[in-house]
Amino acid sequence: MDRRRILMALAVAVPLALLASILVYRQLSRAASSPGRIAPTKIVVAAAALAPGTRLDAKDLRQIGWPASGPMQGMFARPEDCVGRVLMSPLLENEPVLEGNLAPKDSGAGLPGMIPAGMRGVSVAVNDVVGVAGFVQPGTSVDVLATGGIEGQGSILTRTILEDIRVLAAGQKIQPDKEGTPQTVAVVTLLVTPDQANTLTLASTQGHIQLALRNFGDTKQVNTSPALLGDIFGTSVRLPLPRSDRPLARVSVNPAVPKPYQVEVIRGDKPEISAIPQK
Q1: Rounded CA gap, 28 and 213, in Å?
Q2: Is the pTM of this model over 0.85?
Q3: How many C-beta atoms surround the C-beta of residue 18 within 10 A?
């Protein structure tokens, strides 16, 4: 009797187990083929905060999971593809490493590796005023103003010669202060094109330059008019004349008194001179 019950239970359980297996298989197949359920991929990120000019090493990088449905342009899947490359911009911990963050292959470390192909790094002398009180730091953008005279005309003017120029280095530092503390330096290095390098060098050696600090998000080019010294102070100075309807102050003048006549009078043997006033 017990054996018959066991056989009946098995006859029922086996088909149920087979049916359950078929249902699980179908669900897994649907999940694998569903576009919303794509297995994650791996991308390369910074293992710690990295400064510009750093030549990447294996210890600076690691991999994390990333949705395969949302790839980023220029991302890397293997750390070995980034090792030996030089960073052109800072990276935070766990920030993806992209092709745009890296200098071309075989670039030198430090400042030279941060200069893109076709660009130049030009250094100019600055002080507290020219360097905007030390707030011109690596990574900021500036406009360059030049002041000088027009040859043969004797006129002095100031004009903006370069706009939205990136600062590569302040002194020998190629990364900004984390706290934003002003840093007084004697030299600032700017990232310019070869033509801009000519303009900047001429202005800094033959005239006087001034840096104007820009907002990080402001990249608009503004065609400003040059400022002429004559327009500011005028070519000639005219003092205000007194108004014709303003009463003049009265000045009292004493009339001249005529000199008295002198008459010689002889009294006995002594002559005397007497004064007789004129009427």
Answers
A1: 59
A2: no
A3: 10
